[in-house]
Amino acid sequence: MAKRKLIAAPSILSADLTRLGEEVLDCKNSGATYLHYDIMDGHFVPNITFGPDFIKSLSKYGVFNDVHLMIDDPLKYSKKCIDFGADLITFHYEAVEDAIEVQEQIRKLSPNVKVGLSIKPRTPIEKILPLINYFDLVLIMSVEPGFGGQKFIPSSLEKIKVLRKHIDEKGLNTLIEVDGGVNAETIESVRDAGADVVVAGSYVFKSKNKREAIQNIIGE
Ligand code: DX5
Ligand code: ZN
Q1: Which of 2, 21, 121, 183 could form a disulfide with 203 if both were Cys (CB 3.0 to 4.6 A apart)?
Q2: How far apart are CA 144 and CA 75, in angstroms?
Q3: Contact 10 CB / ligand 1 (< 6 Å)
Q4: pLDDT digits over 145-173, tens only?
């Protein structure tokens, strides 16, 4: 049986920042259609990465800009991310009081932007099932957010399966994105659980053969 084809979203957090443009082009030429930006504020997560300016610089490569906001106040920086070329803004359920209100406010900033909702490993999937139909994408964190290169948390697979069943039963178009610790050992279980989009940082940028890693994610 043919493998389910997935969308590969390399995370530039693990890229060689001294050659970032080349790295992005390599990913694009290897079949990646998304580019994953991990924006961290040092508050919501114990790390500080980069800001919306990176989106502005890398938009010229014409890849779908998948922006993962791990910040306390996602609305505060959403407009700048969108102005600089974000195609998808994903914020964390744990960072806001009212996720539905926040997604409405983000959609008012641009009619074309896609909006995603993310949950940390310790947040039960049942918390967000009633909200799914408001979002274009749900991002399941399969590591504790904050750093690349961590080990995949196996209990994430059950969350993906529950979400897949819910989306299929309701006939929703919401995509499932999985983020953290995905590599050659874990990709097939993530695919079989029902993911649509897979983020990979260290697996893509630390491997000797980026094309092979990306093609393996896609399922070519
Ligand atoms: C972690 C980030 C991930 C991370 C993935 O907080 O959200 O996107 O960069 O990196 P790997 O694939 O190395 O776990
Ligand atoms: Zn991420």
Answers
A1: 183
A2: 22
A3: no
A4: 999 999 999 999 999 999 999 999 999 99
Confidence (pLDDT) at 168: 98
Q: Which two tokens stand for residue 73?
A: 């106040």
How far apart, in Å, are the Cα atoms of 116 and each of 29, 54, 194?
A: 26, 20, 17
| Residues 58-111: tens digit of each pLDDT | 999 999 999 999 999 999 999 999 999 999 999 999 999 999 999 999 999 999
Q: Is 83 a catalytic residue?
A: no
Question: For residue 1, is pLDDT > 80?
Answer: no
3-state secondary structure of 34: strand
Q: Whole-angstrom Cα distance, residue 207 to residue 97?
A: 39
The residue annotated as part of the active site, out of 26, 87, 136, 179, is: 179
To the nearest whole percent, how much of the chain has pLDDT over 90?
98
123 in Cβ contact with 162 (< 8 Å): no
Nearest-CA residue for ligand 1 atom 9 is 148
**What atom in ligand 1 is closest to the CA of residue 141?**
7
Query: Distance (Å, rounded) from C-alpha 92 to C-alpha 176?
Result: 14
Mutation pick for ligand 1 pocket among 67, 118, 119, 179 (CB with most ligand atoms within 8 Å): 179
